[in-house]
Amino acid sequence: MRLLVGSVSGKRAVFAVDGDKAVNLTEAVTGIGDDLAALIADPSLLEQAQEKARELARGAKGVAVSDITPALPVSAPPTIICLGLNYTDHIKEGGYEIPDYPALFMRGQQSIMAAGQPMVRPGCSDHLDYEAELMVIIGKGGRHISEAQALEHVFGYTVFNDGSVRDYQRKTHQWTPGKNFDATGAIGPFVVTPEDLPEGASGLKIESRVGAEILQSSNTGNMIWSVAQTIATISEYTTLQPGDHIAMGTPPGVGHAKKPRPRWLKPGETVEIEIEGIGICASPVVDEAEIGREAAE
């Protein structure tokens, strides 16, 4: 099932998407609420939603997907964990050694925003970079999850742009500053449940672009650590919770590694991240000063 959290006429709801049309599950099924948290927490509610979506698709008029303003799939993800180095060619372009354990870091909630919302280039740096990534949303939580059972803990998959402010990322070995500027990590808009994708969302084309300029183009089958391996590894040290987000790392082609000069995102551009079978996450780039001016008016 393809899900979209968003607003129509200012009212937020959960929608089931079929092509360019969507049906409102929040209105149709009691208890769903206005983001995916309830569906993630209650598998029986998800089953009801899937059945209702099939029923509504047969007879309901629905709304145009283009009329829905996307919101975050989960309004407040408990934890956002990201892999830093998960494609061999990306590791090489960054000048790193291939690790034998995933490079993991965390993002705070202030750093993320919904697809379609502005990606903010901070006033203190013009080194804003893009990173196309597969993102996993955890359904069933747990600790010490085996690799063999890990995919049973996945609620769904979405698209992530791990916007990174590179000069600040390199101020510390921990990467935290460069990965946590406000409104730099775009998520969504669609969440696809596992039955509609290949196992572990492997073998999907993943691409970033600005207009006709293709910045990155690879395949999720090229990840070093699969979704199952990543879930098992993370759950060795922490208890995963329903609604946690895991970003699976980016392929080669990031802006800081472009030759002969880096390719930074600029205000006025719109960066798109697309993953086959999931969708496109588009973000207009704006300057922080412009956001400040608009707020003052």
From TrEMBL:
GO molecular function annotations of the record: isomerase activity; metal ion binding
List residues of the Fumarylacetoacetase-like C-terminal domain. 79-286
Keyword presence, Metal-binding: yes
InterPro entries to which the protein is assigned, alphabetical: FAH, Fumarylacetoacetase-like_C, Fumarylacetoacetase_C_sf
Assigned keywords, A-Z: Metal-binding
Q: Which family does the entry's similarity section mention?
A: Belongs to the FAH family.
- What is this protein called in UniProt? 2-keto-4-pentenoate hydratase/2-oxohepta-3-ene-1,7-dioic acid hydratase (Catechol pathway)
Q: From which organism does this entry originate?
A: Marinovum algicola
